[in-house]
Design brief:
Elements: H1 27-38, H2 43-52, E1 60-64, H3 70-77, E2 81-86, H4 89-99, H5 104-110, E3 117-119, E4 135-142, H6 148-159, E5 167-173, H7 181-192, H8 208-216, E6 219-227, E7 230-232, H9 235-243, H10 249-254, H11 257-268, E8 278-280, E9 283-290
Helix pairs in contact: 1-9, 2-3, 7-11, 9-11
Length: 291
């Protein structure tokens, strides 16, 4: 098992053995759990897309739903100029820490390659005097966003900030039968229904990404599948990581956190190995569309 996927995380303080001590609801702690536990699960997706799109010094990339900035950091390490937007200010604060220059020389170099990380829509990154973006990424899986209408609007705006013919890359879950995490995420779906309206998980359809691209007026131009296993050092880390995604927020609105954590832990037990680690193979899909 890849060490970076199973790093152990200290259980938060609370009564021993209490489910309620696994994943505090504090937004800052949840953002940190996302950055330290969950976000790296999609690194294979980021790398596969960047390899295929030849992301490098010639790239000016806009990341929608950039979270705590790991995908942007990987692109920047390839020499790309990166900007990102998200609706979670706590995650953006962590992204700013990650992408801040750590030396005077890097600070001087970055002056001509400004990184904009903004809370809100892609219009917040517009630079009337600068070059247009030549790639847009929306890695946050379709089926996991709080509002498909909001994502559609963001994509329309982002497409208007790109060079003509630029790629827009959409991410999503692969076939449900090839995603072990689907059985766990159904807990969120079951607990939130019938009051769930948005923000929960739903299984991906075969043509979800193509349908979204069509709504935005984008032209599909290739796709791919990538193995993205979810691996955790122990059960509490798995619970904290999955709760940090926001996919259980709708369930938390209609039942108490202890119950959500209890049922989530029970759903994870079949995926726990004898050494205590949790391992769930998944396949993710991406679509390349053109403006």
């Amino acid at each position: 098992m890849t060490p970076t996927l199973v790093r152990h995380h200290l259980r938060q303080s609370g009564s021993p053995g209490s489910y309620g001590s696994i994943a505090p609801a504090d937004p800052c702690t949840r953002a940190r759990d996302w950055a330290e536990i969950q976000e790296r699960m999609l690194v294979p997706l980021y790398e596969a897309v960047y390899d295929r799109m030849d992301v490098g010094p010639h790239t000016k990339l806009l990341g929608l739903g950039c979270g705590s900035g790991l995908a942007l950091l990987i692109a920047a390490a390839r020499g790309a100029q990166v900007c990102g937007v998200d609706l979670d200010e706590q995650r953006l604060d962590l992204a700013r820490e990650r992408l801040a220059p750590d030396s005077a020389r890097e600070a001087r170099d970055s002056a001509t390659r400004a990184t904009v990380l903004a809370c809100g829509g892609p219009e917040r990154t517009a630079d009337p005097g600068g070059a247009a973006f030549n790639i847009v990424t929306a890695f946050h899986p379709v089926g996991c966003v709080s509002s498909i209408e909001g994502l559609t609007a963001s994509l329309v705006t982002a497409a208007g900030l790109t060079e003509r013919g630029s790629p827009v890359v959409l991410g999503g879950w692969g076939p449900v039968e090839r995603c072990a995490t689907a059985s766990v995420l159904r807990v969120a779906q079951r607990l939130a229904d019938p009051l769930r309206t948005a923000g929960g998980w739903r299984p991906s359809g075969r043509d979800d990404l193509e349908e979204l691209a069509g709504r935005v007026g984008l032209r599909p131009d290739g796709s791919g599948r990538v193995a993205c296993p979810f691996g955790y050092g122990d059960l509490p880390s798995a619970v904290r990581g999955l709760l940090s995604t926001g996919l259980f927020d709708a369930a938390l609105e209609v039942t108490d956190q202890a119950q959500v954590e209890k049922e989530l832990s029970e759903a994870l037990h079949p995926h726990q190995r004898p050494d205590g680690t949790v391992w769930m193979p998944n396949v993710f899909r991406y679509l390349i569309a053109r403006t």
